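Workshop exercise sheet. Pairs work together: one partner reads the sequence aloud, the other fills in the structure field after running the prediction. Swap roles for the next sheet.
Pair: D.N. / O.F.
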Amino acid sequence: MHRATRWPSGHFFWAYSGRPEFEGRAASFLAEGQVRGERQIVITDDPRRSLWPRDLLLSGDLLVLSTVEAYGPTRIVDPATLSAAFEAQLADALHLGYTGLRVAGDNTSLAEGPDRLAAWLDWEARADLLMQARPITGLCAFDLSRIGRHALRALLGSHSVAIRSR
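Structure field:
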């Protein structure tokens, strides 16, 4: 895992180029969670668990989930169901002694196509309120090679902070 780089808390939008860029930035983002005592979660379409520190996986400090595991096979999310799922993850984390949740998600496939995008934007509005009220920090990442300009603008507008690629 990369060294922490003083990430703030909040709900972040980030458009990236290529899987290596996502994995590097996600590792930095999650490392900050380790420093803060947060349970870390990374969600991608193809979660390569072998990329992440084995000790964090074995201890449960880091959960690596596929998009299907986290959001279901259709990838059309229901905001109320998803909110309840994140509240349950947070309750579990707090019960285990973590200070909160830190989630890095490659959400590209969740915003592909008009139906998925509309559902995802509804979730983003709810997620933003959830992260303001609860100890959850989220990095919502979208691959520039797979998301159109219209979708990117809509997604950017649904986050309180945008992160620039380096």
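Discussion prompt: Residues 14 and 164 are 7 Å apart (CA to CA). What would you look at next?
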